[in-house]
Write a structure and sequence with these properties.
By secondary structure, the protein is of the alpha+beta class. The chain contains 13 helices and 4 strands. It has 3 domains: about 1-35, no CATH class; about 50-195 and about 260-275, NADH Oxidase (3-Layer(aba) Sandwich); about 205-260, no CATH class. Helix content is about 45%, strand content about 10%. The chain is globular.
């Protein structure tokens, strides 16, 4: 499949700045091409996503691996206009939450397994950090699998982690009970365009062999900053009143500025208030 091979290589070169070998006899090259070239979609056509299709995609997503068959990742579908509008109002910097035909919330559900223990008359001595961690990982795997399934049928998706900035309000709107925490949202719809490939840190930075070896971090980040700026420069600089205007503004400067202010410092308190014990 030379077309698929070329598509994969071109996409990964744009993503990582590296020409990666692809065996043309591999099965599943079309799927690899989709994964290699995937992009976030934030603009959607005014076209509904049928309920039957959405249920199919949820079923595929919930077919994903789950820790010890505990099944602690849930999906909450938000279609009702007033509820979605109220969520969107909490996130004014994300207008696509309002514009997407469907908004999903992926939930870490640490509630069901303790309830199963109670129903079966068994002790549950595992109410500690691992309960929250397992449920969070399950929810993240479900999210990633839903994204893959949705894009396979031509839908576009945009994960929304910023709901955790307003996690208390979002949880109240969704009437989430104890031991259920929203991990991320996702806008879903038929995309207006194909989007663009976001460059990532080099594989030298993020793939390790036999032992962790971060190498020359400063050099790797500088190279990535310039490679990314060549194709996807930042349109605006964060907080120039505080930090001034940088002559060169790359990914590392943007992330350093982003995390120079406290973010979600109360998230641990919220998780504890939801009944999770994090010791």
């Amino acid at each position: 499949m030379p077309d698929a091979v070329e598509t994969i290589q071109n996409a990964l070169f744009e993503r990582f700045g590296e020409r990666i070998a692809v065996d043309g006899d591999l099965p599943g090259l079309e799927e690899l091409a989709r994964l290699a070239g995937r992009s976030v979609r934030r603009r959607f056509l005014p076209r509904d996503v049928p309920a039957d299709l959405l249920r199919l995609l949820c079923a595929c997503a919930l077919s994903a691996p789950t820790k010890s068959d505990l099944q602690q990742g849930d999906i909450l579908i938000v279609r009702e206009n007033d509820r979605r509008e109220r969520i969107a109002a909490l996130l004014p910097e994300m207008p696509w939450v309002r514009e997407a035909p469907v908004f999903l919330v992926f939930l870490a559900n640490g509630r069901r397994v303790p309830e199963v223990a109670r129903l079966r008359g068994k002790p549950f001595p595992n109410d500690h950090l691992d309960l929250f961690f397992n449920a969070t990982v399950d929810a993240a795997i479900v999210l990633a699998t839903f994204l893959r399934a949705a894009e396979a049928v031509g839908l576009g998706c945009c994960p929304i982690s910023v709901i955790r900035d307003r996690v208390r309000e979002v949880s109240e709107l969704l009437e989430l009970p104890e031991k259920v925490v929203p991990i991320a949202g996702m806008c879903v719809g038929w995309p207006v365009d194909q989007g663009g490939i976001s460059p990532r840190l080099s594989l030298t930075s993020t793939v390790h062999h036999e032992r962790f070896d971060e190498g020359d971090v400063a050099s790797q980040i500088d190279t990535y900053d310039h490679r990314r700026a060549a194709s996807r420069p930042y349109r605006n600089q964060r907080d120039p009143a505080r930090f001034g205007r940088a002559e060169f503004y790359g990914w590392s400067e943007d992330k350093a500025r982003q995390y120079a202010v406290p973010l979600r410092a109360d998230f641990g308190a919220f998780v504890r208030a939801q009944g999770f014990h994090l010791d």
